[in-house]
Amino acid sequence: MNIYAPQGSEFEEIAAFAEELQETGNSEEVVIDFSRVKFMTPAWSVLVGGLLRQSKKEKPDIKRKAINFKRLSYAAHIGFFEYFGLNYGQKPDEAFGSDTYVPICIRRIDEVRKLASEKFTAVGDILHDEAERLSTILTRTDTGDLQDTLAYSIREILRNVVEHSEAEDFVFTAQYWPGSRKVEVVVADQGIGLATSLSENPGLNIANDEEALKQAILPGISSKAWRNKKHYDEWANSGYGLFMTANLCSHGGSFALISGGKMLRKDQDSETFLPFRWPGTVVVMQIDTEKIDKLSDRLAALRDEGAAIERSLKKTATGPSKASSSAKPSKWKRADDKSV
Fold first, then answer.
1. Which terminus, N or C, of the chain has the lesser number of Cβ atoms within 10 Å?
2. Residue range 83-90: average pLDDT?
3. How many domains does the structure of the chain reveal?
4. CA angle at residue 219 from 217 to 225, to 5 degrees?
5. What residues contact residue 290 under an 8 Å CB cut-off, 6+ apart?
6. If you average pLDDT over residues 73-96, what whole number do you get?
């Protein structure tokens, strides 16, 4: 059975590729043909590579072969082929990256927790450091609204993966296009998915993947926040991370959330749903760097908007944790130190 890899980054085409892989059930051999590939984005790399990785895991007895791929030198350089098990090019994390891209990187969640323990700090601090490193690479500066916005958005998504996915690892990559002044960041896991995760909350009725996506971007919605009593904890899970990030990104670009069998796409004017098979959860953030407002002002507005929505849904509102409503841990910690 021959399958063509998607030629570009259109989500509909990648979704169709996912369905074709699913239909290989009784095939003795599957040939993946990369001859049609024209344009690769971070989303293309993570989604296509992740789908091939999962297919190999689910159907290990099928013989697999890739053809017409050696012309894709950039894909080889960023670790795309090694990501799904083809011995060609560099491994994930191996390329140094540049001021316009971050190669495919894989982090084991148990190692993130171990590092936090060794440093006597919170997991959130470790993830924030990773997020700032990525945003500094892409913006070529460690200050400013764009750097703050990227660091905040990446950090909140990484927190959601570590706290909710139950995955062994997660993958991320990013790219900045100077010509269009746009940034794309992708974070993905192959864990339990949003529907299963949110079903742990007895106050939610999650009937399907589409409902899980709708609920996930509402404020105060979480599989764990409902039983969290430590509201003083700066890294407390308040169920605001996806709400804040989705609205922040869509205000100056677009936001996509994929889990189970559905995808939600959100921009400033609309929300749409698309069938998309993915075992776990993926977040794709696209930001127009020319539309970035001052982050502190935007977060304050979203915090107030979220609290109002939460009250309308639950009659009461706990509001976001410090982490979900602040750009940098260093700022709130310095403020706390001064008050002691």
1. C
2. 95
3. 2
4. 105
5. 181
6. 94
Q: Determine what percent of the chain is predicted with pLDDT higher than 90.
A: 48
DSSP-derived letter for residue 293 is P
**Residue 18, helix vs strand vs coil:** helix
The whole-angstrom separation of Cα 292 and Cα 71 is 36
Lowest mean pLDDT: which of 16-25, 154-163, 321-330?
Answer: 321-330
Cβ neighbours of residue 328 under 8 Å, at least 6 residues apart? 128, 148, 151
Is 326 inside a domain boundary? Answer: yes
Q: What is the mean predicted confidence (pLDDT) over 293-320?
A: 68
* Residue 24, domain extent: 2-91
In a domain, 157, yes or no: yes
Helix (H, G, I), strand (E, B) or coil at 7: coil
pLDDT per position as a tens digit, 26-67: 788 999 999 999 989 999 999 999 999 999 998 888 999 999
In a domain, 273, yes or no: yes
Structure tokens at 79: 């670790």
Within a domain: 323: yes
Say how far apart CA 66 and CA 142 lie, in whole Å. Answer: 41
Crossing angle of helices 241-251 and 295-314, in 10° steps, is: 130
Same domain, 248 and 145: yes
- 3-state SS assignment for residue 249: helix
> Helix or strand or coil: residue 116?
helix
217 Cβ neighbours under 8 A, 6+ residues apart:
242, 243, 246, 247, 257, 264, 266
Q: Are residues 202 and 61 in the same domain?
A: no
262 in the same domain as 163: yes
SS3 label, residue 258: strand
